[in-house]
Amino acid sequence: MKTVTLPVAYVPLVDAAPLIVAHEMGFAREEGIDLDLVAAPSWSSVRDMLAFGRVDAAHLLSPVPVAMALGLGGFSQPLSAVSVLSVNGNVIGVGRALEARLRDAGYGFDFHDAQGAAAALAGVAEGPLVFGVPFPFSMHVELLHYWLDVTGLSATGVELRTVPPPLMAEALAEGDIDAFCVGEPWGSAAVEAKAGALLLPGQAIWAFAPEKVLAVRTGWAETEPHLLGKLMRAVWRAGRWLNAPERRTSAAEILSRQPYLDLPSELIDRALTGQLTISTLGEQRQVDRFIEFHGGAANFPWRSQAKWIAHRLALRAGMDDRAARAAAAEVFRSDIYRQQMEATPADLPGASEKLEGSIRARTAVASQKGQLSLLPDAFFDGRIFDPDQG
To answer: Which of 165, 291, 349, 377 could tie 186 with a disulfide, CB 3.0–4.6 Å?
Structure first.
């Protein structure tokens, strides 16, 4: 069978694993495609490569296609998020100066209490705090804003500064930023570089946040549905493979290779197992499902998730909330996902929207095969987001 090569852009992060594994483990070739994985130095590079046709698909920050649909960021190329590649996987960290002040104040780095972490930071802040984030339109920014606004930490004065993920440790060590929110393994890399300590996982703010999506140009999705289906199925199979605990060591070894993350596999394994070393003191914290590639319908592009992102963007940009939600609903393509995954073992949820933040424990829901359970998706403050109510 003749294979078709698809160029796909990604940023070297643990959550690029589904694309890398789809290529390395042969899932793409079994679908009749070959992935030409193009590593990018920044998220603006990934966005530009996809928007201008340099690549056919991309590992992309979940808010980027939503922001583009709202006319934010200066780009108007319609993009479709056809599946979610990963849920969670971010960490919030602080530099050595903040770490020292927190310890002097008796803070124990609980790693699970978002409210307590914010109160501790507010208590030791000596002026405005500068947080490094990978991109202005990212789940990192949305989680930070939600956390800062709800806890009142933003009142201390906060600046968000864009720093490419591989440079986050250096920016922290040099004092360009006081803290950061970044995807693994770059938070762990900052700890290994003795630049700071980890304060919270992003999961402590929103328990089931869609982090990266598989994005394509909407026009390409319409003209190449056959190729798109092959890509989606290969990536879905890779996510299912990654979901097995016994494969984490192999996954870490694959990701550690020079063409990909080019970092020690032990560092990558921390994110895959959820066993994170949070400081140079060797302190460890266990975070179950620190990053999710498959379980709980993780790959399904819920329109309600897109609406939550749009709601948050609209609030800050002064846009009409209902119009923003309506535009975002057309970006997370649950319709394409249903169509392309129909013939796979994927159990598809009966609805395409849900009340975000309402699930407190594993919950069985109506689904195509009747075997689907959703995982907890609570916000740390207990709020529930209704996608249909502004």
So the answer is: 165
